[in-house]
Amino acid sequence: MPRNRFAQDRGLTTRMVVTMFLIGLLYVVFVGALLALLRGAWPMILIIAGLLFVVQFWFSDRIAAFSMGAREVTPEQQPELHGVVDRICALADLPKPKVAVAQSDVPNAFATGRNHKNTVVCVTTGLLRRLEPEELEGVVAHELSHVAHKDVAVMTIASFLGILAGVITRIGLWGGFRRSRDPGTAALFILVPLVSAVVYAISFLLTRMLSRYRELSADRSAALLTGRPSALASALTKVSGELAAIPTKDLRAAEPFNAFYFAPALTTSPTVSKLLATHPSLEQRLAQLAAITVELDHR
């Protein structure tokens, strides 16, 4: 992607590289272990794993957008939203993405896409109805920051690798165990799910850590670009408050996509470790934006 005016974040870049390296290394070991344990099923493991990765890499953005109900809109259909996107793209010197709206009362926004040619920025009708123009600009800038930093693509691929552990294990169990009469089969029924569980747990924690940091990075970049951290803070506060009033049934339907959303549909319980959260706490995000306000005032 061409250079843009979003603040660069070396910490985010480093974390993305390290996360992808560790997850890649983890899965090389994982697939190697499965190939050693399930010798009879190795062709199927390699072929299906390869096909799944190709499908995920090339179509993940479309799958995510479709799953979250995104529908592309024209400037005639949503002139205000297109105007906001146009202003932020001009300010950031960023190619304009496709603009979409999801018919949902859950106030939120997300971005998907491997590169600037197939990027989609989507907001829900619930968000459009509730936010003021300057608040909407802050949210759009936040989402476009994800695109500019390329962490959307990294998160999509990294999240998929966690799913792959379970898929490969099922393939191995179905293809290898059913035909095996080896005395060691009973041991494999224990070893393979155990290896899969460990791999999934590690990849899950790695992607969660990256997800929390990238949200803080996007907040900071958006606030510095627009010069109005208070507007983004107001949007965060308003969205978080409105989400508390949304029926739990609707929030649970949106929860699987938390890692992509501007704000989590459902937050983790205070009794649950912060390691499981997709986003930093609202207090942490607001504190960072308050610090940026002070920083901009000093400038």
Automatic annotation (TrEMBL):
Q: From which residue to which does the signal peptide run?
A: none
Lipid bilayer topology: Multi-pass membrane protein
Q: Which residues form a coiled coil?
A: none
**A Gene Ontology cellular-component term:** plasma membrane
Just give the chief location class.
membrane
State the name under which the record lists this protein. Answer: Protease HtpX homolog
Family recorded in the similarity comment? Belongs to the peptidase M48B family.
Tell me the ranges covered by the Peptidase M48 domain, including all copies. Answer: 75-291
- Cofactor(s) listed: Zn(2+)
Give the EC number(s) under which this enzyme is classified. 3.4.24.-
Q: What class of enzyme is it?
A: hydrolase
Q: Which residues bind Zn(2+)?
A: 142, 146, 215
Residues that span the membrane, as ranges: 12-35, 41-59, 152-174, 186-206
Cite the PANTHER family for this sequence. PROTEASE HTPX, PROTEASE HTPX HOMOLOG
- Note how many cofactor molecules are bound and how: Binds 1 zinc ion per subunit.
Q: Name one GO biological process term.
A: proteolysis
The active site is formed by 143
What organism does the UniProt record list as the source? Actinacidiphila paucisporea
Q: Name one Pfam family in it.
A: Peptidase_M48
Keyword hit for Zinc? yes
Which InterPro entries does its entry note?
HtpX_protease, MFS_trans_sf, Pept_M48_protease_HtpX, Peptidase_M48
List where in the cell it is found. Answer: Cell membrane
Which keywords does this chain's UniProt record carry?
A: Cell membrane, Hydrolase, Membrane, Metal-binding, Metalloprotease, Protease, Stress response, Transmembrane, Transmembrane helix, Zinc
MF terms from GO for this chain are:
metalloendopeptidase activity; zinc ion binding
Instruction: State the organism's lineage.
Output: Bacteria, Bacillati, Actinomycetota, Actinomycetes, Kitasatosporales
